[in-house]
Amino acid sequence: MTKKFKILLIGDTCIDEYKYGTVDRISPEAPVPVLKHIDTITRPGMAANVEQNLLSFDCEVISIFGEQSIKTRIIDERSKQHIVRIDNDVISQPCTIDKIADLNVDAIVISDYNKGFITYNFIDSLKEIYDGPIFVDTKKQDLIFFDGCYVKINEHEFNQIKSTCSDLIVTLGSKGAKFKEHIYPAMNADVVDVCGAGDTFLAAMCYKFLESNNIEIAIKFAILAASISVQHSGTYALTPNDILSISNK
């Protein structure tokens, strides 16, 4: 069966590792909890989580990833409370434009966690050779370099930017998302974990834009998709039932 859209995904990736256990006592060596390990779960994170969500939308995805980092979360099994997160970040060599052999795609998605793989020069070169829609989630602060792309950041990141761009979408958590001074409200959701919600938002926005050719419709759809993600622990890829439920709203 032919896939609906063909998407080139470029970005930083990681393994999200969740170590669950129980805490019954404080260490005699230091005032810290002692966790009795029960189980470890691993899931794809960052751009790899975007990839999983794009695949959920039945897209064909060509992925170019940087070096893989590992983020380990130590979690109390009873309360699901995070005790600590351990980041083993790996800085990648910059992605080069010659890595992109086939630009016959419907859209390009950039998942930039600022680990060295995506550079401003790379974005400039990409915009020169590709005239289709480019969707970006970035931790960078000089957004002017992404002018001409649809750029999604969160509210905390927005408060730290040094320059802005023409098509900026700011996610506002429970308040929804803002685009060109208009706020699109979120639906009520029981938030369990916000980890990976931005990845789901990015994938859903790209997919719906390609389907509708309307960024406002795409943003509203992405808000619904992210509202499902936050109701699950850890990174989450939408299911066919999830997609059906939000497609009918």
Overview of the structural elements:
The protein has helices at 47-56, 120-129, 155-158, 197-212, 215-229, 240-247, and strands spanning 6-26, 33-46, 60-76, 82-88, 107-112, 134-138, 150-154, 167-171, 177-179, 182-184. With 249 residues, the chain is α/β, with parallel strands linked by helices. The longest helix is centred in the last third of the chain and has 16 residues, at 197-212. Strands 1, 2, 3, 4, 5, 6, 7, 8, 9 and 10 form a ten-stranded mixed β-sheet that branches. Helix content is 25%, strand content 35%. It contains six helices and ten strands. Helix 1 crosses helix 4. The mean pLDDT is 92.
How large is the share of residues in beta strands? 25-35%
Q: Which structural class do you get from the secondary structure elements?
A: alpha/beta
Query: Are there runs of 5+ residues with pLDDT below 50, and where?
Result: none
Shape: globular
Query: CA-to-CA gap between the ends?
Result: 27 Å
> What are the secondary-structure elements, in order, as H or E?
EEHEEEHEEHEEEHHH
- Number of distinct helices: 6
Biggest β-sheet strands, sense, barrel: 10 strands, mixed
The whole-number mean of residue pLDDT values reads 92
Computed over alpha carbons, the radius of gyration is: 19 Å
Helix content: 25-40%
How many beta-strand runs?
A: 10
